[in-house]
Hints:
elongated
Amino acid sequence: xxxxxxxxxxxxxxxxxxxxxxxxxxxxxxxxxxxxxxxxxxxxxxxxxxxxxxxxxxxxxxxxxxxxxxxxxxxxxxxxxxxxxxxxxxxxxxxxxxxxxxxxxxxxxxxxxxxxxxxxxxxxxxxxxxxxxxxxxxxxxxxxxxxxxxxxxxxxxxxxxxxxxxxxxxxxxxxxxxxxxxxxxxxxxxxxxxxxxxxxxxxxxxxxxxxxxxxxxxxxxxxxxxxxxxxxxxxxxxxxxxxxxxxxxxxxxxxxxxxxxxxxxxxxxxxxxxxxxxxxxxxxxxxxxxxxxxxxxxxxxxxxxxxxxxxxxxxxxxxxxxxxxxxxxxxxxxxxxxxxxxxxxxxxxxxxxxxxxxxxxxxxxxxxxxxxxxxxxxxxxxxxxxxxxxxxxxxxxxxxxxxxxxxxxxxxxxxxxxxxxxxxxxxxxxxxxxxxxxxxxxxxxxxxxxxxxxxxxxxxxxxxxxxxxxxxxxxxxxxxxxxxxxxxxxxxxxxxxxxxxxxxxxxxxxxx
Length: 512
């Protein structure tokens, strides 16, 4: 062996010995790899290896230790990259040199583990992203800064490996998703951050705005999948990511604020429809994306709501829905946007509900809808806004229905409805909240809809509460009506025949 080979063999032997000792002491696979890397780098430094050679030796030792500990080829590559980047940092190399060392070590470990050429390139990109993230941590950057560094480095490594623009965007999104996996970011924000990184990588690669939106949606979808999101949740967050990407591309192109909001809505709708959303669902996503774009453009609250309404209406118009359906979608989007704008400044649920109800009432009035429709839609918007706030605050499903019913009743009262009508609105809002109930932990929310009987019971309770000023007999009657209506609606959503819907309604009413 040449002197250089002897030194490298000595470093490898030191790493292997450290890994064995770590395993004997009960260390896990990742810790064994880290100990091997540190020992190899130290031995290499003692024997005169350059900083770059020390990093390479550390990466090789970490990869070998990870393989011996039974980690998968992908995990071996990650361990090798981490070992190399830490050694490079300890040896005083720059961030760029740390990332380069990690990339090379990750690719070498992946190749040694028998991965395909494409997988080797992907492993190198992943290692680069992880190294950049760790460098950002050492520099004291925020979680967002760490994720941004990870995405950019992964994309650059993918580009350096001559990967396609799609693959570069995918690598960037995956790196951000991994970077934020242990953070306190919500699952939705993690997915949207992955989408932003993918869009940025696609833009650097030179693809057009449409392809940037597609890349963002795909990255958000992949991140949401890792978080355990349902297909419907993934479709929604992907749509918002696409809308945000389109808005960013439009802003950088210098287009007007109105064009930016329009672009965001169209991109969100397209992404949502592609992932199986109904036109109505796509309209909701389009409204949200347009409102976010308007917010970024520092538009007034009323302008944000108007942009949301226009975007939602346009989606249904493109699918030949009736003028009435288009108008209803528009005013509902305006109400949701009004609540969402206040949610950004952490306003309490009652204020968000009032804003949603007022905005919806105003939009319905401006659309020359009947007084009854104005009132019903206002109450519905207030209830939905309240349920959303309580849901994300990890409040129980039943309390979500109580809050939604109370908010709907309050909005109905402000809109001039009688007590009986307020009771009906409260029951409907509570049932809808029960259908859309979710269970949330510190970061993610999982759909947990109430069953038919629970929705009916929630509707009855809300209706009775809203009718507290009436006689007990009137309250009981309104509660039974609310329970029946909720059961019929739930049965209809489940695709039951009209006869079964009627039977469900009758049973719920009698039980109430």
